[in-house]
Amino acid sequence: MRVPSPLLVPLLGLFLASGPLSQWLEAAPKTQSASEDRLTAKAGLSAETDSVLDGEESATEMESPAQVKVFLAELHSVTEIVALGDSLYEKGNLVGAVIAYTKAIELDPKLATAFCNRSETYFAQGEIDKSLADASEAVRLAPTDAAVFVQRGRVYLETGRFAKAIVDFDEAIQRDATIAFAFACRGNAHAHLGANPKAIADLNRAIEIDAQNAIAYRTRGAIYGGMGKCDKAIADFSEAIRICPDDVYAYSSRGEAYLKAGCLEKALLDVNEAIRLDAGNEYAHLTRGAVYAQQGAFEKALADLDKAVQLAPNDSDAYSNRGCVHLATGNFDKAIADAAKSLELDPRNSVAYRCRGTAYAKKGNAAKAIADFSEIVRLNPGDVLAHLNRGIIYTEQGDLEEALADVNAAIASDPKCVEAYRCRSRIFDKQGKKDLAEADRATAQKLSPATTAAK
């Protein structure tokens, strides 16, 4: 049995395939509204307090919890203690920041700002339950403050509780419709739930409020990328890079957009820059692996995809893409193993089903191939390649009615699919319908200069 080479599973199957904005969530910065609280606290410090803090240097010098506690003993007000926590946070001393905020809470258990900022710090430490508890307490203490809703909404957003996140961002925006970060985050949550029009509207508003909001540009770019609007995605990622020239995720995402648009050299430049900025960026290695694969540099592709698997052993896309490279190089057993691991991590990964189904077909196991392509059709009834590949297998088996149904479905989804017309012409030949076969061959010939393979 032969599966035409143009139907080989695409080597890049991950452009936002794990869900929209997956990269953005990895890179989301701390809640800006909480930072505004800190600035307000600092603005109220007296000259005496400034002398005690000795600028930023004292916070930098305090490395151990013991040193922080000694310094706290010299402060005389909750405002000073919260400001110290802010300074420690900004310098990356998260343990010290927690100690300071906890001291402030001990002195004033109703201080919402301290709970909000400690929530932010706990989140940065990965203490999600503690972060959520503090954010909820801040909401209870200050129900009229937009900032506390933004902080709790962010925790919900970054832990995948998108509906709850939207409720909190709604509350924040009702209280203060000028917080760009709230609109950007709500847009992100809408996108995760598939409400792209609402997401784009929120991100547009975030950019109207703050034209230098790199997060909003990067998030909107991710949505456009997922919609296949590569030009708009590239434009937004470029704007994010202009605002933040060291934004690893913007480079990596723009590289994906260039790859999807077929601009391999530009894609390679971007992912190389992303890796230069952060050699541990899983997405950049994943994308560069796909670029190398498209260029036929399979050894380089496997090296990057091996690295992606090492960096993110629970990422379904890393295994499915590596499986595709094994498939392209004829290592069908390795392709099947990687696809199986990918599906173990994400049973809805259609790229993995396509990879494994094609590998089974190449190995002559028609039943398992049909089962995998059928699963893709169940997940996405309009998938052209799944219908077409399954139709090819049915044709080889002599099950012409099933084959014809699949190929007709492929043509209905993509009327310009050359391979579908070619396959149907062979079915008609086997059925003795010569006129219909010739008509399909003529259509394929007419389309082939512009379209040479199924998409």
Description:
It is a single chain. The protein has 455 residues and is mostly helical. It has a domain of 75 residues: Serine Threonine Protein Phosphatase 5, Tetratricopeptide repeat, CATH 1.25.40.10. Helix content is 74%, strand content 0%. The protein has 27 helices and no strands.
Q: How far is it from the N-terminal to the C-terminal residue, by CA?
A: 22 Å
SSE arrangement, N to C: HHHHHHHHHHHHHHHHHHHHHHHHHHH
Mean pLDDT value: 86
Looking at the structure, what is the overall shape?
elongated
What CATH first level of one domain would be assigned? Mainly Alpha
Q: How much helix is in the residues?
A: over 70%
Q: Briefly note the structural class of the backbone.
A: mainly alpha
Radius of gyration: 27 Å
Extract low-pLDDT stretches: 1-57, 451-455
- According to CATH, the fold-level topology of one domain is Serine Threonine Protein Phosphatase 5, Tetratricopeptide repeat
Number of DSSP E strands:
0
Biggest beta sheet summary: none
The count of helical stretches stands at 27
Which CATH architecture of one domain?
Answer: Alpha Horseshoe
Strand content is under 5%
CATH evolutionary superfamily of one domain: Tetratricopeptide repeat domain
